[in-house]
């Protein structure tokens, strides 16, 4: 059985460690995105615009538009043997 307090404390410690490391290095998420050229992220854009860029990039790379428009295609993409 999973103890929820352990999960919450672990999650909080990971976030805290990440924030401390970002503070020490000076690399915040927008700067990391710029350096790694992830989905046209820029520190000049608003966080909402950066989030939209990431979501659109994920949708394009995983073909979510195709599966959302036609739900039956999800099964075809996940199991090619069923379509034969």
What would the keywords be for this entry?
single chain, 84 residues, mainly alpha, 6 helices, 75% helix, 0% strand, flat
Written overview of the protein:
This protein has about 80 residues and is an all-alpha fold. It has one domain. Helices cover about 75% and strands about 0% of the residues. It is built from six helices and no strands. The radius of gyration is 19 Å and the shape is flat. The model has no long low-confidence stretch (mean pLDDT about 75).
**Largest sheet properties:** none
Shape: flat
Summed up, the domain count is 1
Which spans have pLDDT < 50 for at least 5 consecutive residues? none
Head-to-tail CA distance between termini = 42 Å
Arithmetic mean pLDDT: 77
Number of strands: 0
Class from helix and strand fractions = mainly alpha
Along the chain, the helix and strand elements come as: HHHHHH
Radius of gyration from the alpha-carbon trace, in angstroms: 19 Å
Helical amount among residues, as a percent range? over 70%
Residue share in β-strands: under 5%
Tally of contiguous helical segments: 6
Give the helix/strand layout.
Layout: H1 4-25, H2 29-36, H3 47-62, H4 64-69, H5 72-78, H6 80-83
Describe what is shown at a glance.
The protein has 84 residues and is mainly alpha-helical. The chain contains six helices and no strands.
């Amino acid at each position: 059985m999973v103890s929820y307090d352990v999960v919450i404390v672990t999650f909080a410690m990971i976030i805290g460690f990440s924030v401390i490391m970002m503070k020490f290095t000076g690399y915040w998420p927008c700067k990391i995105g710029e350096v790694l050229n992830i989905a046209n992220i820029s520190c000049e854009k608003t966080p909402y615009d950066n989030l939209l860029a990431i979501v659109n990039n994920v949708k394009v790379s995983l073909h979510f538009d195709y599966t959302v428009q036609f739900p039956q295609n999800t099964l075809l993409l996940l199991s090619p043997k069923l379509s034969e």
